[in-house]
Amino acid sequence: MLYYSLTNVLGNGTDLAARYPDRARAQDAPGGLAAQLLGLKDARGLPAAREAVAKGDRSDPGWKAAELARLSDPVNYVTKTAAPILLAHSSIDSVVAVEQSERLYRKYLETGLDASLYLWSRGAHGAVGLDIEAASSEWLARKLLVELAPKR
């Protein structure tokens, strides 16, 4: 199983806000995980980077974090030669908004690539469960064109 970067680091808190307002505020806060990942020291937290982008101000201290967020976005690296992808995401994930996987899935489809998106309503962030593990194994077997052992 591979994990990928958020498709929109600056927007994850916004995506989470309707369902998990406290988590969204924590994501955007100074010292929050996303701010740490981007090396953002601004006392305003992630809003500083979003403001720099909105203003188009490359001299703003938040610009560097915004640029790192753009560079870390896997959507920006999807090309016609990308391998098939399976995305699995819990619809109740309170750490990474499901919209993050949906963005990458849409980009694959827009590029004409092979993509599958499995959403499930159980499980927290990073805990997929047996149903998704089984579906992932079947997906992988189909892609590799191998026969699975008979189910017991």
What structural keywords apply?
mainly alpha, 7 helices, single chain
Succession of helices and strands: HHHHHEHEH
- Low-pLDDT stretches are none
Radius of gyration: 18 Å
Strand content: 5-15%
What number is the mean pLDDT?
A: 85
Shape: globular
| Helical residues, percent | 40-55%
Beta strand count: 2
Major sheet strand order: 1-2
Task: Tell me what you see in this structure.
There is one protein chain. The chain is mainly alpha-helical. It has helices at 12-17, 21-28, 33-37, 46-55, 62-72, 98-110, 130-144; strands at 85-90, 115-120. A two-stranded parallel ribbon has the order 1-2. Helix 4 (46-55) crosses helix 5. The model has no long low-confidence stretch (mean pLDDT 85).
Q: Secondary structure elements and their pairing?
A:
Elements: H1 12-17, H2 21-28, H3 33-37, H4 46-55, H5 62-72, E1 85-90, H6 98-110, E2 115-120, H7 130-144
Parallel strand pairs: 1-2
Helix pairs in contact: 4-5
Structure summarized in a few sentences:
The chain has 152 residues and is mostly helical. It is built from 7 helices and 2 strands. Helix 4 crosses helix 5.
